[in-house]
Amino acid sequence: MVINTILINIAKEYLAFSQEKNKYDQIRFINETGMEKVRINFNKGNPSIIPEANLQSKKDRYYFKETMALLPNEFFISPFDLNIENKKVEKPLKPMIRFAVPIFNNANKKQGIVILNYLGEQLIEPMEKRDSLSPGNLMLINSDGYWLHGPDKDLEWGFMFENKKNYKFSLKFPKSWEIIQSSDVCQFSNTKGLFTSTTVYPLKEELKSNSNKISSTNPKNIKADKYYWKVISHVPAHRLQLENRGLLTKLLFLSILLFLLAAIPSWVIARLMTKRKQLQLKLYHSANYDKLTNLPNRGMFINRLEQAVKESKRYQRKFALFFIDLDGFKSVNDTLGHDAGDKLLIQVSERLIKSARESDTIARLGGDEFTIIFPTIISSEHAKTGALKIIKTLSSPFDIDGEEVQIGASIGVSIYPDNGKDMETLIKKADDAMYLAKKEGKNDYRLSTA
């Protein structure tokens, strides 16, 4: 009878706490056997005490096992996942972060745990509101590469469902994910668009659980500094052509800053601001990109080519360098005007992007000259195939303001290390081969001689 009275009083206190805070979906006391003894459900703003008959056993849940393993003055925080009721993911989906502490009696004997389920929607909703203000898709990605929030609801929380294990940002954008993982703060552009990313460490230094680790649903232990979220804004390539790059960059970082200030709980913001105040967001300077086509310009091309030479030397692999000069471009300028010529160059860049791989670097050197770094080829046959594909792509008619325009492309190809082992030689060889292709009939390619 005394025990029941104690539980009733605990339930009343938890109820009052829930009504005051309005941020916890559940507040529970679970005894040492894993059985819920007190449970408060938030009920969308109408908290209530759950009858004893409806309480459940949680002995097999990872958060109960991990918290029961803790010592006094330690506490547990779960990964950001979905709520599970009766061994099934609750519908509609309910994002959740769980905070728990073990409870001890006067004899220092463990009596169970107290656990609070933080409503994860309070993190997600500010992002959804800012999606309309951001020129890109604002996303929250966990450290395993899964969407916690993204532009497609069907792709979110893939790790919680057996049939969605491959629904990952890291699988859809593998090259981009490698870059994002390599830095806490980054911005870069590739054929998939413009990516801006910053990192949040919810557990770092402030929180402590078993051996300073948290539990994952695998189950496995993860160190606090390895558990992070990535806040990512992605502007698809086609939208970049409609935006001013300088203004766009400012808006992207502003939208992420607003999200951090509004969405992350105060205990995260305090640590984040004090630890990261010395960091300044590094932006790609607009000089690295051609203003008309949004392709990398000559400066960035040289940097990428230098990197390609270094990596190919290190790993003893081949790559090809394409120099492309448009055939018939001058006549378009002369007959239809320079505006039409600019529109043609934009369409040419779009076709080159579509015909290339994500790992290729396409750059505009100036005028109607383009170049492509074609990494990791096995033989010259791969380069020939790529050149023929580009010629076929650019030979199809273009529609410029209702006028059908026909052009071609002369392509020169040099291959590392067959045609040279340094950047200057490879550039000259590709350039010479391109002029040879133009001299011998145009709209064709030539491989450089060894």
Task: Provide the descriptors you would attach to this structure in a database record.
Beta-Lactamase, five-stranded antiparallel β-sheet, 3 domains, 450 residues, Alpha-Beta Plaits, seven-stranded antiparallel β-sheet, elongated, 36% helix, alpha+beta, 13 helices, 23 strands, single chain
Beta fraction of the residues?
25-35%
Number of domains: 3
- The name of the CATH topology of the largest domain is Beta-Lactamase
Q: How many strands, what sense, and barrel or not for the largest sheet?
A: 7 strands, antiparallel
Q: Which shape, going by the Cα principal axes?
A: elongated
pLDDT average, as an integer?
82
How does the helix and strand content classify structurally? alpha+beta
In the CATH scheme, the class of the largest domain would be Alpha Beta
Poorly predicted runs are 205-221, 269-285
Total number of beta strands: 23
CATH superfamily descriptor of the largest domain: PAS domain
For the termini, the CA-CA separation is 94 Å
**Estimated radius of gyration:** 29 Å
**So how many helices?**
13
How do the strands and helices of this protein lay out in sequence?
Layout: H1 2-21, E1 24-31, E2 36-41, E3 48-49, H2 62-68, E4 76-77, E5 81-82, E6 84-85, E7 88-89, E8 95-104, E9 110-119, H3 121-131, E10 137-142, E11 147-149, H4 169-172, H5 174-181, E12 185-190, E13 193-200, E14 213-216, E15 220-223, E16 229-236, H6 237-240, H7 245-263, H8 266-276, H9 298-315, E17 318-327, H10 329-336, H11 338-355, E18 361-366, E19 369-377, H12 380-395, E20 398-400, E21 403-405, E22 408-416, H13 423-439, E23 445-447
Parallel strand pairs: 22-23
Antiparallel strand pairs: 1-2, 1-9, 2-3, 4-8, 5-8, 6-7, 8-9, 10-11, 10-16, 12-13, 13-16, 14-15, 17-19, 17-22, 18-19, 20-21
